[in-house]
Amino acid sequence: MVVIDPARDIKPYLAFAEKHDATIIGVIETHPHADFVSGHLELHQTTGATIYCAALVGAVYLHQAFDDGDVINLGKTTLKALNTPGHSPDSVSVVLEHDGKDKAVFTGDTLFIGDCGRPDLREKAGNLTAMREELAAKMYHSLRDKLMMLNNDVIVYPTHGAGTLCGKALSEANSSTIGAEKLSNWSLQSITEAEFITKLLQDQPFVPKYFPFDVEINKHGAGNLAQAIANIPVGRVTKLNSSIYIIDTRAEKEFKKGHLPLSINLQNGDKFETWLGSIVAPEEAFYLVAENEEILASLILRCGKIGYEHFIERAFVFQAGTEVMDAFDIDWFLMKKTDYTIVDIRNNGEVKEHPIFENAINIPLPELRERLSEIPFNKPIVIHCAGGYRSAAGSSILQSVFAEQTKVYDFGVAIKTLLK
């Protein structure tokens, strides 16, 4: 059995191998991932499996180069390397050949279902760096000179589906075919290289703070996850460090009723670790708070997905506090909008597409802590996003800074009524 682009937690792969009486002999990294920490090194240390990656990765861990022309033989199945730079300079795709015929291709972050990988994550990270325009040009040729040359019936398996920030328009499907993508995927259409580069670089999502950090972790290989988690202090103490932020993962209604000073309300949701790594910088210590021990344990694991388990100063269960956030009177606000400072923490593209308040200050949530000086506090401050999740986090950040100067309010889910 060969595992391609494993997640940080390797237990599912070990269980699958045991269930099917298989031996894990290889692990392939299509590139050093930016959006998650891979379990490739731990799989090697646990099973003895060989790690394969492109020579250009400059991997620090023990590995075997896997580039154009290299193969891994598994009985009647052969895994063949294709160098497909574009998302990164060191990306490879893996073609699966069975009984002499190409059956599938594992495209990493090069070709997604409905899109291709973004080219702007390796300008300052990794063994090799490259400007986004250069990588976009390489992506154009990797798609056309390598992947589109495969037969139309070859199944496409990318590393990610919808939800990742490694692309901008991914489908929720887990697989497709080369033929289907030629028909429907914008990046495989007949356009010039210049047109492709322009379109690929347009409206890419923000780059979370943790992305370059994870590239470096994956280049070196992450240590044992269970051991790292076992070293995290768990349980409340009588005195907390007043200079360290608290990541309070409880529901916003409970948070507003009572929380600790210097708390950020980053609710337990589908993208918790993405937003954690977007708001909190690598190497910055934080406390982690949840409503019960079961949820706390699951959130510690999710911190491990992005390599942030080492930055947890302490994790503990918490249910009430002395700090509160007052309820927001929407009707009064709509009559007296000029009496408030409005901060829109949606991304720039969202604001451009659907402006809501004419005089709002637009500071995307990932930039909020760094741009606090741009927000005046001579009026009450109202924070909004597009659905309430980000505004819960943003309003808690501003409350921790401006609570002594002015009131801070969260528009919350009610903003949806103004977006219709």
TrEMBL record:
GO terms for biological process: glutathione metabolic process; hydrogen sulfide metabolic process. Keywords: Metal-binding. Coiled coil: none annotated. Transmembrane segments: none annotated. The keyword Nucleotidyltransferase does not apply. It comes from Mucilaginibacter polytrichastri. The keyword Calcium does not apply. The lineage of its organism: Bacteria, Pseudomonadati, Bacteroidota, Sphingobacteriia, Sphingobacteriales. CDD domains: POD-like_MBL-fold, RHOD. Residues 240-289, 336-416 form the Rhodanese domain. This is Rhodanese domain-containing protein. Gene3D superfamilies: Rhodanese-like domain (3.40.250.10), Ribonuclease Z/Hydroxyacylglutathione hydrolase-like (3.60.15.10). One of its GO terms (molecular function) is sulfur dioxygenase activity. PROSITE patterns: RHODANESE_3.
